[in-house]
Amino acid sequence: MSKYYTSKFAFRQAVGLCLTSVAIVAMAAPPAPAARGTNDCTRGPGYGMHGRYGMGPDMMGGGMGPGMMGGGMGPGMMGGYGEGHGMGMGAQHWARIPGMNLSDEQRAKINRIADDTRKAHLTTVGAMLDQQARLRDLYGAQKPDEAAIDDAYKTIGKLRSQMYDSTVDAHKRMEAVLTKEQQDVLHRYWR
């Protein structure tokens, strides 16, 4: 076995294990607002699909470590450090932006889009975890099957791409719920 082969797959295994850890942490969500003693979505720590609460429910948030699209306390591929202006989604996040003034109907529509997307992402995360288990077994074999390992990583890449695409689509649908003035407020907030 060549040194390149060993280091290449050791790196892939480390990345895979890291993604699995992030996925598991990402599935943890804060209690529902009613459990916190309030139903006002503008108070308290909330979470959106790219929000600022922990890792978020769909592997796309910030929190205490790197996220694919959020800020939080660590670097994100599309966010940055700290509690900055990420691509936060969901009525809970957007309602806290000064000047948004979401109506109850807008909140309900945005929350429905966020919930549907979160549920779809949880299914996708489950499929990613299945691929991680497959990789675990492939790497544990006496002679790792390079083609099968490559296939598993390609599948994970496709699943991540699906999550990204559905997130972008959800964001567009949520933004379409807003008035032109609210969209302007949102875009100024992101800058």
Secondary-structure-derived class: mainly alpha
Mean pLDDT score = 69
Unreliably modeled segments: 27-87
- Give the amount of beta strand, in percent: under 5%
Tell me the major beta sheet: none
- Would you count the extended β strands for me? 0
Q: How big is the Rg?
A: 19 Å
Order of helices and strands: HHHHH
CATH class: Mainly Alpha
Tally of individual helices: 5
Question: Residue share in helices?
Answer: 55-70%
Label the CATH architecture: Up-down Bundle
Number of domains: 1
What does this protein structure show overall?
The protein contains five helices and no strands. With 191 residues, the protein is mainly alpha-helical. The chain has a single domain, classed as Four Helix Bundle (Hemerythrin (Met), subunit A) (Up-down Bundle), CATH 1.20.120. About 32% of the residues have low confidence.
